[in-house]
Amino acid sequence: MTPRFVVRDIALNERPVTFEHPFRFGAITVNGAPEAVVLVEIEFEDGRRSAGATAELMVPKWFNKDPKLSPDDTIAQLRCALHFARELYLKHPFDTAFGLHAACYDHQIARCARADIPALAAGYGPAELDKAILDALLRAQGMDIFDGLNSNVVGLDARLTPDIDNAIIENFLALRNPTSRILIRHTVGMLDPLDGLAVVHAESGCRYFKIKLSGDPVADRDRLASIIETLTDLGVDYRLTLDANEQYQSHEALAALVDALLNDEALETVAQHLLYIEQPLPREKTWDMPLGNLGKSFAFIIDEADSSYDAFPRAIKLGYRGVSSKSCKGIYKSLLNGARAACWNAMDIARAFVTAEDLTCQAGLAIQQDTALVAFHGIVHAERNGHHYVDGFSNVADVEAQEFLSAHPDLYEQGKGAIKLAVRDGAIKFGSLSGAPGFASGVDPRHVGQKATQIQSEMLKDYGT
């Protein structure tokens, strides 16, 4: 029987994270962001209690790119989404982990909409609470994340995805064989110097790269040509993904980029190395602009447009092939999209896939839990930009950093300054994320967030409780 519980307490905290160098994606440059740290306590029907935790950056101007809002405004929306979800979850009676999520999800989206918080930002609240709750559930059951998901300890079912049935979901979960090693896909931001690619490859052996695009097909063509020349000079057998972060404003502009990728002599090797193109169009325009023949030239995926449980099948009908998995968008949505892709491929309905992207994961719980989710899918390469833009655990109390290093010596190493992600031969290994009870962490959840302070939300005054 799937365990039922009630949520007794949810503590919402945050701590500042400073970037080592600016990260530009889309139309914003980010120099830092607060990291949310969530601690929950759940109680089972037999009276047992268990604690769990998670962490994730609250990145500005990604969940909501409204030009009328400042970066701080968009972070305030995420804080509000966390508080709204907290209130909903604390009021819900005994239920399964997924039952709790499913019962509260529509209420969360609707309530946030009344506060002018879009669905993608609204989903951040439940996404974080669900991860911490899963950690507590697994610890109480004495299960690691992989055994827990294989046995469907969360009670995942088809109530939010009527296009597939429970048997498809159960089959997907039961048959997953998690990877034990993931190749790192290094993010090249719009401000990152191209000569840094040689340093990255020399230090980490990285050969998978994610290139940010500007939305200007001419400028993107020239920059890609320079990147290709740099990688060719390094003699690297590289693979690329391209990410426009919604910057292509028209089908015509996107067609110009695709034409350059296919026909420009300076980019002639791209087609051999390009895996897919991510979220080229603004999320709201995605649904009005079918890809048409463009989708036959390269594989496209949605990311920011993935703001609802029906987004992936809708995108498939428009010519997209894939969808990103991000723990900040929700572990259950990620798993259900994985079940869809597996079903569609097995039945020859569509050639579909799930990718692993990373905007918000820093060293510690965030990167460990997202990496475990990626590994459960069986995905072999993942964008991990947290290790690149932030100096490991430099924003974390030393005692907390040392505890993570001791619990996960295969995933981290002592750097010149801070403890950081250990990337060797272009990959990370993480056997230590399995075996011990909990959601991919051997650290006591009550020891996380020692530099954090309580999350306040001024927006709650305006929109009530």
Characterize the structure shown.
The chain is of the alpha/beta class and 465 residues long. β9, α14 and β10 (353-356) form a beta-alpha-beta unit. The strands form 3 sheets. Strands 4, 5, 6, 7, 8, 9, 10, 11 and 14 form a 9-stranded mixed beta sheet that branches. The model has no long low-confidence stretch (mean pLDDT 94). α1 (71-91) packs across α4 (124-141), α2 (97-114) packs antiparallel against α4 (124-141) and α6 packs across α14. The protein contains 18 helices and 15 strands. It has 2 domains: 5-142 and 453-463, Enolase-like, domain 1 (2-Layer Sandwich); 173-441, TIM Barrel (Alpha-Beta Barrel). The two termini are 34 Å apart. It has helices at residues 71-91, 97-114, 119-122, 124-141, 145-150, 166-175, 196-204, 217-234, 251-263, 270-273, 283-286, 294-297, 311-317, 331-346, 365-377, 386-389, 398-407, 459-463; strands spanning 5-25, 28-44, 49-57, 181-188, 208-212, 239-243, 274-278, 300-302, 322-325, 353-356, 381-383, 412-414, 419-421, 427-429, 453-454.
How large is the radius of gyration? 21 Å
- Derived from helix and strand composition plus strand pairing, the structural class reads alpha/beta
| Sheet of most strands | 9 strands, mixed
How many β strands by DSSP? 15
Tally of helical segments: 18
Instruction: Quote the average pLDDT.
Output: 94
CATH fold naming of the largest domain: TIM Barrel
Q: Beta-strand level of the residues, as a percent range?
A: 15-25%
Roughly what percent helix? Answer: 25-40%
Q: Pick out the low-confidence regions.
A: none
> Any idea what the CATH architecture of the largest domain is?
Alpha-Beta Barrel
The CATH homologous superfamily of the largest domain is termed Enolase-like C-terminal domain
CATH first level of the largest domain: which class? Alpha Beta
Shape: globular
Number of domains: 2
Distance between the termini: 34 Å
